[in-house]
Amino acid sequence: MQIQVNTDNNIDGREAVIEDVQERAQAKLRPVASHLTRVEIHLADLNAPKGGPDDMRCMAEARPEGRNPIAVTHNDESLGKAVTGALDKLRAAVESDLGKRAARG
């Protein structure tokens, strides 16, 4: 599973953030990783220096083998919470998709 992380220009410490997000994605998605070819994660600070509630956005897209991409978005007050929320949603969505696929045979 390849993990690609993109950030907007308002994210500080891009290299460290990208490395941290890649490690977190590998850990969170480990149970479904064998079914995924690629995961793309896009990070954005919506209000830049202004701050505010829910101004950090994490959009995550998984590409399961032989299936359509699955995308989720989570906004939160901190980048860490936004990433965690999006990865939790993504794992649940992938598991649901795999369950539906298995049920159809």
Extract low-pLDDT stretches.
none
The overall pLDDT average reads 92
The name of the CATH topology is Double Stranded RNA Binding Domain
Widest sheet, order of strands: 1-2-3-4
Number of strands: 4
Radius of gyration from the CA trace? 14 Å
* Overall 3D form: elongated
| Percent range for β-strand residues | 25-35%
Quickly give the structural class.
alpha+beta
CATH class: Alpha Beta
What's the helix count? 2
For the record, the count of structural domains works out to: 1
CATH architectural designation: 2-Layer Sandwich
Helical coverage, percent range: 40-55%
Topology:
Blueprint: E1 2-7, H1 14-29, E2 36-45, E3 56-64, E4 70-76, H2 79-104
Parallel strand pairs: 1-2
Antiparallel strand pairs: 2-3, 3-4
Helix pairs in contact: 1-2
3D architecture notes:
This protein has 105 residues and is α+β, with helices and mostly antiparallel strands. The relative contact order is 0.19. The chain has a single domain (2-104), classed as Ribosome hibernation promotion factor-like (Double Stranded RNA Binding Domain), CATH 3.30.160.100. Helix 1 packs parallel to helix 2. It is built from two helices and four strands. It is elongated and about 50 Å long. It has helices at residues 14-29, 79-104; strands at residues 2-7, 36-45, 56-64, 70-76. A hairpin with a 5-residue loop joins strand 3 (56-64) and strand 4 (70-76). The longest helix is centred in the last third of the chain and has 26 residues, at 79-104.
